[in-house]
Amino acid sequence: MRFDPNRLNALILVAVLLCLVLLFRLARLQLVQSDLYLRQSQTNRVRVIEKPPLRGLMLDRHGQLLVDNYPSYTLMGIPRVIRQNPDARDTLLAITGIDSVEFEKRLEKIPGNWYTPVRLLRDVPFEMMAAIEERRARIPGVHFRVEVKRAYPNPIASHTLGHIGELKIERREEFPNFQEGDIVGLAGLEQQWNTVLTGQRGYEYLEVDAKGRIIGPLPGMESQDPSPGSDLILTIDLELQQTAEQLLQGWAGSAVCIEPKTGEVLVLASVPDYPPETFAGTLSPAEWKALQDDPMKPLIHRAVQGSYPPGSTFKMAVLASGLESGTISTSWGVTCAGGYQLGRRFFRCWNHGGHGEVEHRLSIESSCDVFYYLLGRQMGIETYYEYMSRFPFGQKTGIDLPHENAGILPSQEYLDKRYGGGWTEGQLFNISIGQGDVLTTPLQCATFTAALANGGWWIEPHLVKHVKNGSTYQDPDLPLTRHETGFSDEVMKLVRDDMLAVTEGPRGTAHWLQDPRLQVAGKTGTSQNPHGEDHALFVAFAPFEDPEIAVAVVVEHGEHGSTAAAPIAYKLIRKYFGLDEETWQQYRWSVLRERANQARADSLAAAQPDSPETLE
C-alpha cells in the first residue's frame, strides 16, 4: 500500500484545529467565564438562608395590644435538589397534600436560580413537621424556617388593621423593594405602613455537600441578625371601637369617630367584617371564594370604601354654600306645603303634610326638603360645586389607608358627561338634598362634621399616632395638612347653632335623644336606596361649645336616621365622655312621663266648661 502524504497532512491539520478549539475553550472557561463558574460552584456549596425579622406590633392609643406576633413554621425547598431526587418530590406531595401542578409552580417561583430556597408551604402543623423530619434522610433539599404569624389579642377593626401574606407576581409593582414570595402587608395598615413594620432581614451562610445536605456554618462568613420592624401606636380607642362594632351587630354599616382638632381617628368600624385571624394563616380557595360570594360583602371596608348618598346630613354644606356665596341671606325662606311642583314632577318633602313657613333654622331642625330644592336651583350648579367642593366631598380625605374611595360631588362637567347634556333641574333638586348623583363615604361625613365642629377647617384624618422604634417614639411621616374652607365665622356659627336645634329644638328630628348632661349638635339623614329600604345616617359633634369628638354613623337599610343611626352615635358619644346609659334612660322616662301628664292635664282642661270668670 502506497503512503499518501496529503492524507497525513489533512489528519495533522484536523488534530491541530481540534487542539486549538480545545485551548480556546479552556482559555474562555479559565479567563473569561471564571467568575461565573466560580459563583455557580460556590452556589452549589453554599446556602444563603434568610432570617426574617420580627414584624412591628400595633397598639391602640392607650397601649392596648392589637396585633402581635407568634412563630409559625414554613417549609422551604431548594428546586434543583428536589428535582434531582424524584422520590423526595413524591414523598413531599404525599405528606403535604399539595397539588402537583401547584407544587411545580412554587418550584419555578424564582426562574433561573435553582439553588435559592423557595416557600413550599406556610403555617405547617406540628404533625406534618414530624412526618417530614422522620423522613429527612430521604427528602434532601428541604428545611423549616421560623416566620412571623400575626395574632390578635383584641380582635377588632379587621379591615383597618389589614393582613399580611405572600407577595404574588400580579402585585409586584406595589412593593418596589420586595421580591415575589416575600411576606408583606397586603391590606389595611399592614399594607400602608409595610416598610415601617417589616424591619431588615438577616442572613445565615451554610455549607452543604454535593447532595444538598447541610454540613454546618460556612467558614469565613459571619451571619447577619435581622432587625425588627417598628411598632405603630394607633389613634384607635380599643374600648370605643369595640362598642361601635357591638352596636352595629345585626346591621350592615359603619361608624367613624374623629378628634376634630387633631384629625386622630378614634373609631373606624365596618360591619359585617371577618375575624382578623382569617388571613393570618393559609386561606384555602374555598374559604376565599366563600368570602367573595358572601352577599353581605364582608370584605368591603365600608368606612372608607362604601358609597352612600349623604341625604339630609348634606344640608349644612348646602346652607353654608348658599349663605357664603350670597345666593341667600339669613332672612330668606320658603313655604313648604309638602313638596314642590317642577314641570310634570312633584318633588315631595319627607314631611308630606308640609312644614309651613321655613327659614334656615327650621330647614335644618326639621330637615325641610323644599327649602333645599329651591336653594339649590337658586345657586345653580356652578356656584353649588364651587362652594361645596371646599368641604371634603368628591375627594379622598388622605387617611393613611390604601384604596380610599373619593366619592362623587357632581359638577356641571360631570352632569354633562353622564347625561349627555340632557340633565335637568330635577338632578339639581336631588343633589341639593344629598340624593341622586351625590355619593360620600362615612369617613368623608365624619371629616365634614369635624370641619363644622372646628368652625370651618379640618386636618387630614389619620390612624397612626406614633412610630415606636425600640424605646424611641417618633411622629408619623404624614402631611397632617390643615384644610381651610374659607367660610366666614358668622356662617359657620349659624350652621352650628342650627345643628344644635336638631337635638334640642322642639321640632328637631332627634330631640328625643337630648341628654341634659351634654350638648350635642347633630343632623339626621335618610338616603334613598334603589335596592331596598333606605339607609339611615346621623352626624354629630360634642360638646357643642368646645367639640372633642365628631361622629358619623351609617346603617344600611336602617330607614330612618333618627331611630337607627342617631342612637348609635349618642351611645358612642356618651361612652367617650364616660356618661352611663342608665342615667340618660332615667331622664328620658321622666321627660316622657312629664309630657304625658301635661298632655292629660291639657285634655282635661279642654273638656271643662268655661267658668263665669273666664267669660268676657
- Given as residue ranges, the uncertain stretches (5+ residues, pLDDT < 50) are 610-616
Q: Please report which band the strand proportion falls in: under 5%, 5-15%, 15-25%, 25-35%, 35-45% or over 45%.
A: 15-25%
Q: What gap, in angstroms, lies between the N and C termini?
A: 166 Å
CATH superfamily of the largest domain: DD-peptidase/beta-lactamase superfamily
Category from helices, strands and their pairing? alpha+beta
- CATH topology description of the largest domain: Beta-lactamase
Can you put this structure into words, describing what you see?
The protein is α+β, with helices and mostly antiparallel strands. The protein is built from 21 helices and 23 strands. The strands form seven sheets. Strands 2, 3, 4, 5, 10, 18 and 19 form a seven-stranded mixed β-sheet that branches. The protein has a five-stranded antiparallel β-sheet with strand order 12-11-23-22-21, with helices on both faces.
Brief overview, please?
Helices cover 38% and strands 19% of the residues. A hairpin with a 7-residue loop joins strand 21 and strand 22. The protein is α+β, with helices and mostly antiparallel strands and 616 residues long.
Features:
616 residues; alpha+beta; Beta-lactamase; 2 domains; seven-stranded mixed sheet; five-stranded antiparallel sheet; disordered C terminus
List the helices and strands and how they pair.
Elements: H1 5-32, H2 34-45, E1 46-51, E2 58-59, E3 65-77, H3 79-83, H4 86-96, H5 100-107, E4 118-121, H6 126-134, E5 142-151, H7 158-161, E6 164-166, E7 183-185, H8 188-192, H9 194-198, E8 202-208, E9 214-217, E10 231-234, H10 238-248, E11 253-258, E12 265-271, H11 285-293, H12 302-305, H13 315-324, E13 334-336, E14 339-342, E15 345-348, E16 356-358, H14 360-365, H15 369-388, H16 412-419, H17 425-432, H18 442-454, E17 457-459, E18 464-469, E19 472-474, E20 482-484, H19 489-504, E21 521-527, E22 535-542, E23 549-555, H20 561-576, H21 581-607
Parallel strand pairs: 2-10
Antiparallel strand pairs: 1-8, 2-3, 3-4, 3-5, 6-7, 8-9, 10-18, 11-12, 11-23, 13-16, 14-15, 17-20, 18-19, 21-22, 22-23
Helix pairs in contact: 10-20, 13-15, 13-19, 15-17
